[in-house]
């Protein structure tokens, strides 16, 4: 089915409270939110618009940017020093793994927990299914990973939950067997649900180009003009910062500084900081060498997991075992949902020590693929064991 272009209405839909959470601060978009009404970020004066660079230092932004962006290892002078550094990193990492054991080594334990339960898979994209690369437009998943994810979706309901726009992540994954949640869960295509369509005014029942019914859920629809305006402004005011890249993910904006000299990170942070002064209904979060601007609503990847579980008809059941695999700070909301509900497990993808609400860990996308292949092989064995083809 074609999940990119559902035929849905595009008029704004009101938002109300549901049992998945209240969408807060959802006031109507107005010109007073626009930076152009203040004249601060016009094309002619963007160079003069940067506020005091002490702002991002004093409020902790710069520290957060550095903390969420560990530097790549640099060659140290002398082989012995380099080896000592690597040995120390491995020792620190394996010590950390005592708290977050390998999902590969713990596979049998995970399967025991999931025994006689329905597994639902939720996967981040960047850093989980594809490696982290300098150019986000080239974060391609391997064909072997695509084949593996297709096999997973054959046996388990599977969704990709990404910070990228839904269309972009679909283009990268290119599998119609999955469900997709873009913009950190603010743009979801899921299975059709009459119940959800009645509960959530932001749910739209539609159909894909093959005529299959789907549900489109966009809890931040009214923010689209605001997000687009912020995107265009940021493109303009960062265009002279070498290596800076601004992406429009439909319901959020990403400002990448992976290829920006660290001496310019403060400037990047200050520009975003100043933009947000004029948009009180937007906020910034820190990712891996990226600042992400998104609506201030009670919605995140954890809420997206809850919504998809509900849309799959798996809510309030004791025989469901959700597994969420992700590598970034934004995935923590999903890990927390699973941990607090004592349902399923979160698996953090990381090759360095990180504090997390996940239970298990995997080192990199290659280990993610191995884990998914183990899961598929186990399921195939179970079906053969019970006489299913």
UniProtKB/TrEMBL annotation:
Source taxon at top rank: Eukaryota
Pathway-wise, it operates in: Glycan biosynthesis; trehalose biosynthesis
What's the Enzyme Commission number for this chain? 3.1.3.12
Which Gene3D superfamilies does the record match to this protein? HAD superfamily/HAD-like
Instruction: Kindly state which keywords UniProt assigns to this record, in alphabetical order.
Output: Hydrolase, Stress response
Give me the ranges of the annotated region Disordered.
Answer: 1-52
Cross-referenced Pfam families, in alphabetical order?
Trehalose_PPase
- Composition skew (Basic and acidic residues), residue ranges: 1-10
BP GO annotations: trehalose biosynthetic process
The chemistry this enzyme catalyses reads: alpha,alpha-trehalose 6-phosphate + H2O = alpha,alpha-trehalose + phosphate
Q: GO molecular function terms here? A: trehalose-phosphatase activity
Q: Which cofactor does it need?
A: a divalent metal cation
Protein family according to the UniProt entry? Belongs to the trehalose phosphatase family.
- The protein's role, per its UniProt record: Removes the phosphate from trehalose 6-phosphate to produce free trehalose. Trehalose accumulation in plant may improve abiotic stress tolerance.
Write down what this protein is called: Trehalose 6-phosphate phosphatase
Q: Which organism is it from?
A: Abrus precatorius
GN (gene name): LOC113850071
């Amino acid at each position: 089915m074609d999940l990119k272009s559902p035929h849905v209405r595009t008029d704004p839909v009101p938002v109300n409270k549901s049992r998945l959470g209240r969408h807060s601060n959802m006031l109507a978009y107005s010109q007073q939110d626009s930076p152009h009404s203040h004249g601060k970020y016009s094309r002619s004066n963007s160079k003069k618009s940067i506020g005091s660079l002490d702002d991002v230092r004093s409020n902790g932004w710069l520290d957060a940017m550095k903390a969420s962006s560990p530097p790549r290892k640099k060659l140290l002078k002398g082989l012995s020093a380099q080896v000592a550094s690597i040995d120390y990193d491995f020792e620190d990492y394996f010590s950390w793994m005592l708290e977050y054991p390998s999902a590969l080594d713990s596979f049998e334990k995970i399967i025991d927990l999931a025994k006689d339960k329905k597994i639902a898979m939720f996967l981040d994209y960047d850093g989980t299914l594809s490696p982290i690369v300098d150019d986000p437009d080239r974060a391609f998943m391997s064909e072997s990973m695509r084949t593996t994810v297709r096999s997973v979706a054959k046996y388990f309901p599977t969704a990709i939950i990404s910070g990228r726009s839904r269309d972009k992540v679909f283009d990268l994954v290119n599998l119609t067997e999955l469900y997709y949640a873009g913009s950190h869960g603010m743009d979801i295509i899921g299975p059709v649900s009459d119940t959800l369509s009645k509960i959530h005014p932001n749910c739209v029942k539609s159909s894909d180009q093959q005529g299959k019914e789907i549900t489109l859920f966009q809890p931040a629809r009214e923010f689209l003009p605001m997000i687009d305006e912020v995107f265009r402004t940021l493109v303009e005011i960062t265009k002279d910062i070498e290596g800076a890249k601004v992406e429009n993910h439909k319901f959020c904006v990403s400002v990448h500084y992976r290829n920006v000299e660290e001496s310019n990170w403060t400037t990047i942070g200050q520009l975003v900081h100043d933009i947000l002064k004029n948009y009180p209904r937007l906020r910034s979060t820190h990712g891996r060498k990226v600042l992400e601007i998104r609506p201030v609503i009670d919605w995140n990847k954890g809420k997206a997991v809850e919504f998809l579980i509900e849309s799959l008809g798996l809510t309030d059941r004791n025989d469901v075992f959700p597994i969420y695999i992700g590598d970034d700070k934004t995935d923590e909301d999903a890990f927390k949902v699973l941990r607090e509900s004592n349902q399923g497990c979160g698996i953090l993808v990381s090759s360095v020590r990180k504090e997390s609400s996940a239970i298990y860990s995997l080192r990199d996308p290659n280990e993610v693929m191995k884990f998914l292949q183990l899961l598929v092989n186990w399921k195939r064995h179970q079906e053969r064991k019970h006489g299913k083809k």
